[in-house]
Design brief:
alpha/beta; Spore Coat Polysaccharide Biosynthesis Protein SpsA, Chain A; 12 helices; about 15% strand
Length: about 350
């Protein structure tokens, strides 16, 4: 727990809401229970009939001492519906520091202290990838395998070399930094606002830094189709925004490494089965050890889900290389589309 100092700068939490996610009450409530001296909560909904609005209003009423309000409206500045929803919150935010967590983030009580602690003189943006927690079925465990020991692990590896990538799950800007790059509308230069954020920060000669430890996202129940659609969408967006970095993703995971080890074993005339078993034990044993050490969800399904994930990764890579379309919260979109639809 990082203690907040009395002179900690005030922060505006701008939270886009859309629909009732699993654990919505817990994640939205966490925004009101932060141990931080001065912050406001600004919820943004695109439609007045969104089913999450009664819950938001209930929470605002339950915490009268916390400065909080709900803004409703949809300003089409980009093809990204989340960004269109956030514009009004950015404009109405009262403070210089603006944190934008997704509505399904479970914020720890020292959430804002962690964001500030990650900042250095060369920092243009503080972010966090999501760590999946509270999986309630096999497919949610599979999503944990994608989120935690694949995507989050690679994100922090890149960050350790000064190559951090923004992640839209949580982003904290200093308002003046983004305004100098064209304001929040500049995030519409890419289909994904986090990809645009990464490029804006790097163009300014600054770094994207990641929070330690990463924020958690409770998952609950998932379906196979939901996991596939989400991973396919993210893969296509990565390929469209960062093609040079996306290309070698085909080599990530255990499958390409196992093929290489097996080939070497054949060429060197050593026992193939024993070599493969030894490699798999070392590779996935290290992954399970990482999960245990950092306290991420670990169960009898963790290992088989890691194996299934690695078998899916090459399929997802080819899927991303051969298509652009995806669906996000009921919106048909394209990874290469740049212009906002006509109002």
């Amino acid at each position: 727990m990082i203690e907040a100092t009395p002179d900690a700068p005030p922060v505006s939490l701008v939270i886009p809401v859309c629909g009732l996610d699993n654990f919505a009450e817990q994640t939205l409530r966490s925004a009101f229970e932060l141990d931080y001296p001065d912050y406001e909560v600004v919820f943004c909904a695109a439609r007045a009939d969104d089913p999450v609005i009664p819950l938001v209003n209930e929470l605002i009423a339950a915490y009268p001492a916390r400065a909080a309000r709900l803004l409703v409206g949809d300003e089409r500045i980009s093809v990204n519906p989340k960004l269109n929803n956030l514009v009004k919150g950015w404009r109405e935010a009262a403070h210089e520091w603006i944190a934008m967590p997704d509505s399904n983030v479970l914020m720890p009580r020292d959430y804002l202290q962690r964001l500030h602690a990650a900042r250095h003189d060369d920092t243009g943006l503080v972010c966090s990838p999501p760590v999946g927690c509270a999986p309630a079925n096999f497919w949610a465990e599979l999503e944990c395998a994608f989120l935690n020991t694949s995507q989050t692990r690679w994100q922090y590896f890149a960050d350790s070399f000064g190559m951090g990538f923004a992640q839209g799950k949580t982003m904290m800007w200093k308002r003046s930094d983004l305004e100098s790059a064209g304001g929040i509308r500049a995030l519409g230069q890419e289909v994904a606002e986090d990809a645009a954020s990464t490029k804006i920060v790097r163009a300014a000669g600054l770094r994207v830094r990641l929070v330690e430890p990463p924020v958690r996202q409770p998952l609950g129940l998932r379906t196979a189709a939901e996991v596939w659609r989400r991973q396919s969408r993210w893969a296509r967006l990565r390929r469209a925004s960062f093609p040079v970095f996306y290309a070698p993703e085909i080599l990530s995971g255990g499958v390409p490494a196992l093929i290489a080890v097996t080939f070497v074993a054949i060429q060197c005339d050593v026992p193939v089965l024993a070599t493969a078993v030894g490699f798999l034990t070392s590779w996935y044993g290290a992954e399970m050890a990482l999960v245990w050490m950092v306290g991420w969800p670990l169960s009898r399904l963790t290992l088989p889900c890691a194996l299934l994930r690695d078998m899916m990764l090459p399929v997802l890579w080819f899927n991303a290389m051969t298509g652009n379309g995806f669906e996000w919260r009921g919106n048909d979109m394209s990874a290469v589309e740049r212009e906002a639809p006509a109002s």
